[in-house]
Amino acid sequence: MALISALTLGISNSLYKQSSDVLSPISTTFYYYIFSAILAAIVWTFWGDSKEVHTSSLIWPALIAIFLFISVLSFNFAITQMTVSMGATIRALSFVVTVLIGVAWYRDSLSWQQMLAVVFSISAVLLAGMGNTDGAGTEPTTAVPVIEGVSVEPRERS
């Protein structure tokens, strides 16, 4: 399931670029959550569990929604200022935050190989963004249609 999550996140990162070029980062984020709520309601209707939900336990999905909203909105703005590949690469460093929280809060332990992997990942992102003095690869590009026959006209930037 983690691989499916990674695959669909990668695809959605690219689609955010298409949508933010046509609409705006705020509209993209708004409609993303509207459609997500519809999909979640359908899934919950057919596959939801019968576990009793206490109001106090709703703090967790509320916190998740707040942090994911900030993540999606800021990513949608970021990719209007940089390439989607660079924005997605930086966004992919979210696992470093997760690792730090896991170690501090959940008392996860890391082997030296896992710690080295985190250091290499951070280094890779830093290297990807460095040495770009001519600005190559930092300008946002115009999106091209993903769906045959669908015209994608970028919105005017102010």
Anisotropy-based shape: globular
Order of helices and strands: HHHHHH
For the largest beta-sheet, the strand count, sense and barrel status come to: none
Q: What's the helix count?
A: 6
The strand count comes to: 0
Cα(first) to Cα(last) distance is 41 Å
- What ranges have pLDDT less than 50 throughout 5 or more consecutive residues? none
CA radius of gyration is 19 Å
The helix/strand class is mainly alpha
Tell me the fraction of residues in β-strands, as a range: under 5%
Structural commentary:
This protein has helices spanning 2-22, 25-47, 59-78, 84-91, 94-104, 112-129. With 158 residues, it is mainly alpha-helical. Among the domains are: 16-44 and 57-82, no CATH class; 92-132, no CATH class. The N and C termini lie far apart (41 Å).
Helix and strand layout, with pairings?
Layout: H1 2-22, H2 25-47, H3 59-78, H4 84-91, H5 94-104, H6 112-129
Explain briefly what this protein structure is:
With 158 residues, this protein is mostly helical. It has 6 helices and no strands.
List key phrases describing it.
6 helices, mainly alpha, globular, 158 residues
